[in-house]
């Protein structure tokens, strides 16, 4: 797990006020970290073009130019007037060293974006937009200083955004770098320590980035066990039975001792799953919503979930009349995709927004929902999954675009249901099922376009 911050200004200030460090010292460390990243990947003499903006992001770039000049063939491009005091100081130093400042970007091995960082405060002008498009079209290795230019701190992107291969971010990980839109821009991310170790630079934060190694599988440790030891998941099987079948198969594969599809009529299902009209007494967790449609009358549905067993709720449940009733429950995991989350937000009166508005401010909307429903666990799907409960938030950035296919979400619901049935808390079930889901996708050996729900289900066999 790593910490995520919505701003680092207060962390920088603590370096000055509590640790007695100076802005210049922090900047030298920032530049040295980028220089290290270049040296690791490119030999002396390689061509490095550094595009520097008016503020301290530009100043970082100018300091980088000083560090590399002599060993590398460095050129600096200054599309805007150098403004901040630190940028002016670094610029003067470059002039004394004779580092070439050029008007146009020429072919190079490394292209560094130090135009804007955390200070991007208004929309990019057309000149900078054109420049970023040109930079993105170049074949060089692309390094972003702190944050790719065009990515705003809330995680939304301007008309153009620098598409980095590597972002060297200063001091700590910023939450905005883990929005869905940011995933196109940030590339690999490394954190530069700025003169004190990260543990001293960072403070407590409610936002956590999940790492692949955080995954806790439902391993079977005791020998004297039977199928009943691993829970019984009921999957409500509605109009589109395929969705419930996928979830059921996923749950069985992820360790649930028994899985029963709760259906209204006889449906053809794989032989390893069971089927029942009523909820068997041993069912200790229920998955509901996937492919539900209009199949059940409210009373019929209520009968299937009428005690306080944990639920995982997906898909059609967010538009269902019973939503309000379900949200009163204590043990519930909600797994909307962005469109479904806009429905959830509007039906709960928290916000009226469309998918575009939601995606521009995913973190804020998740916080607002979790404030209003502190018992519920919310898992907002997307390129970077957000999981929240109360005032604790986690981001799972490990999914790939191979998951962008019908049925991937049904598999996730099945995995969550399996962990609920095996006794995980709703929050742990959401976290570890999500990590298993993304890990299974990453380990798939075929092309990204080829991953099917069955591949994901098979994928959890060998994590
Ligand atoms: N504060 C610190 O202690 C450290 C800061 N560092 C660097 O400093 C950066 C932040 O520096 P700044 O706060 O100067 O911010 P930036 O360098 O990101 O940009 C601020 C400048 O750009 C202008 N600007 C903002 N949006 C614009 C737009 N759309 N079009 C044209 N001009 C625009 C502002 O008026 C201001 O002059 C970080 O991203 C990081 O790279 C690092 O050196 C590490 C230490
Ligand atoms: N580009 C992507 N990168 C990473 N994960 C993705 C991407 N697109 C979709 N996913 C994941 O795939 C799943 C899709 O779920 P959902 O849209 O509910 O599908 P369905 O309802 O068809 O099963 C979610 O877990 C989501 O986070
Ligand atoms: K930048």
Automatic annotation (TrEMBL):
Family note: Belongs to the NnrD/CARKD family.
Recorded coiled-coil stretches: none
Species assigned in the record: Sulfurimonas diazotrophicus
Residues holding AMP: 409
Keywords: ATP-binding, Isomerase, Lyase, Metal-binding, Multifunctional enzyme, NAD, NADP, Nucleotide-binding, Potassium
Isomerase found in the keyword field: yes
Record EC number: 4.2.1.136, 5.1.99.6
Protein name: Bifunctional NAD(P)H-hydrate repair enzyme
Function of the molecule: Bifunctional enzyme that catalyzes the epimerization of the S- and R-forms of NAD(P)HX and the dehydration of the S-form of NAD(P)HX at the expense of ADP, which is converted to AMP. This allows the repair of both epimers of NAD(P)HX, a damaged form of NAD(P)H that is a result of enzymatic or heat-dependent hydration. Catalyzes the epimerization of the S- and R-forms of NAD(P)HX, a damaged form of NAD(P)H that is a result of enzymatic or heat-dependent hydration. This is a prerequisite for the S-specific NAD(P)H-hydrate dehydratase to allow the repair of both epimers of NAD(P)HX.
């Amino acid at each position: 797990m790593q910490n995520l911050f919505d701003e680092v200004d207060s962390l920088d200030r603590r370096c000055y006020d509590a640790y007695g460090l100076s802005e210049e010292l922090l900047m030298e460390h920032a530049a040295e970290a980028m220089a290290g990243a270049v040296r690791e990947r490119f030999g002396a003499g390689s061509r490095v073009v550094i595009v520097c903006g008016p503020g301290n992001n530009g100043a970082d770039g100018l300091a980088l130019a000083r560090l590399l000049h002599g060993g590398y063939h460095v050129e600096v491009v200054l599309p805007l007037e150098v403004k901040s005091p630190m940028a002016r100081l670094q610029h003067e130093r470059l002039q004394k060293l004779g580092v070439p400042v050029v008007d146009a970007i020429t072919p190079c091995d490394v292209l560094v974006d130090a135009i804007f960082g955390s200070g991007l405060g208004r929309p990019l002008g057309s000149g900078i937009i054109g420049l970023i498009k040109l930079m993105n079209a170049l074949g060089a290795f692309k390094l972003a200083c702190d944050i790719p230019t065009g990515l705003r701190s809330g995680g939304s992107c301007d008309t153009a955004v620098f598409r980095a291969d590597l972002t060297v971010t200063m001091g700590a990980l910023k939450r905005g770098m883990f929005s869905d839109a940011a995933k196109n821009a940030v590339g690999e991310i490394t954190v530069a320590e700025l003169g004190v170790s990260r543990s001293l630079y960072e403070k407590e934060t409610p936002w956590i980035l999940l790492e692949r190694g955080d995954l806790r599988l439902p391993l079977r440790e005791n020998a004297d066990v039977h199928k009943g030891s691993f829970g019984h998941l009921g999957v409500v099987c509605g109009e589109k039975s395929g969705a419930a079948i996928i979830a059921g198969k996923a749950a069985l594969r992820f360790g649930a001792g028994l899985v029963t599809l709760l259906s209204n009529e006889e449906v053809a299902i794989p032989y390893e799953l069971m089927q029942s009209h009523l909820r068997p007494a041993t069912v200790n967790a229920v998955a509901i919503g996937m492919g539900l449609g209009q199949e059940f009358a409210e009373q019929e549905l209520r009968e299937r979930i009428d005690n306080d067993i944990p639920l995982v709720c997906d898909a059609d449940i967010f538009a269902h009349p019973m939503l309000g009733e379900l949200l009163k429950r204590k043990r519930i995991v909600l797994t909307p995709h962005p469109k479904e989350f806009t429905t959830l937000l509007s039906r709960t009166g928290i916000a009226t927004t469309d998918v575009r508005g939601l995606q521009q401010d995913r973190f804020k909307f998740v916080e607002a929902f979790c404030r209003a429903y502190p018992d519920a666990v919310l898992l907002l799907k997307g390129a970077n999954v957000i999981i929240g409960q109360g005032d604790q938030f986690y981001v799972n950035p490990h999914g790939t675009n191979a998951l962008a296919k019908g049925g991937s979400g049904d598999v996730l619901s099945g995995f969550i249901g399996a962990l609920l049935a095996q006794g995980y808390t709703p929050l742990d079930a959401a976290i570890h099922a999500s990590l298993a889901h993304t890990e299974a996708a990453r380990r798939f050996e075929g092309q990204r376009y080829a991953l099917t729900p069955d591949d994901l289900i098979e994928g959890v066999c060998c994590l």
